[in-house]
Design goal:
Length: about 475
């Protein structure tokens, strides 16, 4: 039984972080934009309207604040680990060093599902916005190639979703420097579009639309918080980039906290203006930000929002796939997944094979699977990861009190404990089918661990 909880030593992790298998090209600014690129997308352009109409009403702002607090607490924990152990793998690596191999494998397995489904789900959203945009120019694509089987539209494949994933895969496989450059440009585009919406929309706000402010009660706010949590997913992806950062101890905590702060402020302002412009009962649409501008007669600006949405969703795609590859790269390097997933291309300095394998799998899911019933699984996976990172910080403070930390979570163990309880509280608010699906996925992971990972683990081989 002791082998299930064997741990990687902090000394070995720090030594591994000094190896230069991946190219170190990013700074704090790049990481902040990477985080914003991952966070601002589907949440602000899609979820805001649905949650306002069905769950929270104008109190959507409180749902965002509640989710933002949960993420902020977890962000502090990520920042401490990233400043102490600057290595790829994020919460998987941190769990391996504190709670042991079995927990590490299962949370890594959980994160792989989170990022893979997020990539595929976001690609489906990208496809919908793309079709809407070209329809404005009179171009209509046939249903047979624009929706997955089972989506109720008679489609065979969602081809735009497949194509955009493969294009992102090609970009990521060529190098992080090129990927970062594209991400930075698109982040500026979508931030500009969001600021245009704020400046234009604030003049059309009618305070009467905020009444009643809490139409669905406190339960509606909490359920809304568990749903809009999807809008915050991504800041944790910054931690997976630690081995490709010039000064990871300093820059990774800055990137995590700065990106989350910027996005939380944007979400609060946008949700306040959105519910002030349009009665919340009318916001149950796929493109609420564009719809709000059309509602007040600003049709030309509504088209601009579609362009910003496409740019925003593209950056989310890029960062989600990047994070997925870096998690499986770290697990493969430790022997818990096949070794080919951690092979680094001699010229591009990227996990080339891993990137393309991930791209093909994500494209297949997006192209042929209706993801509606699986969307909550992404939230569940992230909340589970946030819970573990909060516990792991407490363990690391006990086991390695003298470890050099460029950033420290204040009020340990109280703050991490509150973070873990907060995340569990939001998990309880998710539907029962989500819990069932989550346990099935973890069950599959447990079987793979005992059949393959435990036998091939690098730590296991050292013990023999």
């Amino acid at each position: 039984m002791s082998s299930l909880f064997r741990k990687k030593s902090i000394t070995d992790l720090l030594a591994q972080s000094q190896q230069k298998s991946l190219a170190r090209t990013m700074g704090a600014f790049d990481l902040t934009l990477l985080g914003i690129g991952a966070i601002v997308g589907t949440g602000i352009f899609v979820l805001t309207g649905v949650v306002a109409a069905e769950t929270a009403g104008p109190a959507l702002i409180l749902s965002f604040i509640l989710s933002g607090i949960a993420c902020a607490l977890a962000a502090f924990c990520y920042a401490e680990f990233a400043s102490s152990v600057p290595i790829s793998g994020s919460v998987y690596t941190y769990t391996y060093a504190t709670l042991g191999e079995l927990f590490a494998f299962l949370i890594g397995w959980d994160l792989m599902l989170e990022y893979l489904l997020a990539t595929s789900a976001v690609a489906t959203g990208w496809s919908a916005y793309f079709q809407s945009l070209i329809a404005g120019f009179g171009v209509e694509l046939p249903d047979v190639i624009t929706s997955a089987p089972g989506a109720g539209k008679g489609g065979f494949i969602d081809l735009p979703a497949v194509i955009v994933i493969l294009l992102i895969t090609a970009l990521l496989s060529k190098g992080i420097k090129e990927s970062t450059r594209v991400n930075n440009i698109m982040v500026f585009v979508k931030l500009a579009v969001i600021l245009i919406f704020i400046v234009a929309g604030v003049w059309y706000v009618k305070p009467d639309n905020w009444t009643p402010f809490v139409p669905f009660g406190f339960d509606g706010i909490v359920t809304g918080a568990a749903t809009v949590f999807f809008a915050y997913i991504g800041f944790d992806a910054v931690a997976t980039a630690a081995e490709e950062v010039k000064r990871p101890q300093r820059d990774v905590p800055i990137g995590i906290i700065a990106s989350l702060t910027v996005c939380t402020v944007l979400y609060i302002i946008v949700s306040l203006i959105l519910t002030g412009m349009v009665p919340y009962t009318q916001l149950n649409v796929a493109d609420p930000v564009s719809f709000a501008l059309q509602f007040v007669g600003q049709n030309s600006l509504a088209g601009l929002i579609s362009v910003g949405a496409i740019a925003g969703i593209t950056t989310v795609l890029l960062v989600m796939m990047y994070a997925q590859v870096r998690i499986s790269f770290a697990m493969s390097r430790d022997g818990l997944l096949p070794k080919r997933l951690s092979k680094v291309h001699p010229s591009f300095k990227t996990p080339f094979q891993n990137t393309w394998i991930t791209g093909f799998v994500a494209a297949a899911i997006a192209g042929f699977v209706d993801l509606t019933t699986l969307a909550h699984l992404v939230n569940m996976g992230t909340l589970a990861a946030f819970t573990l990172i909060s516990v792991a910080v407490i363990v690391l403070r006990k086991t390695h009190p003298n470890l050099e930390r460029a950033f420290k979570v204040p009020f340990v163990p109280v703050l991490p404990a509150i973070s873990a309880l907060f995340c569990i509280y939001l998990m309880i608010s998710l539907p029962a089918i989500t819990w069932i699906s989550f346990f099935i996925w973890i069950g599959i992971g447990t079987v793979i661990y005992f059949v393959y990972a435990r036998k091939n683990s690098n730590l296991g081989r050292l013990e023999k």
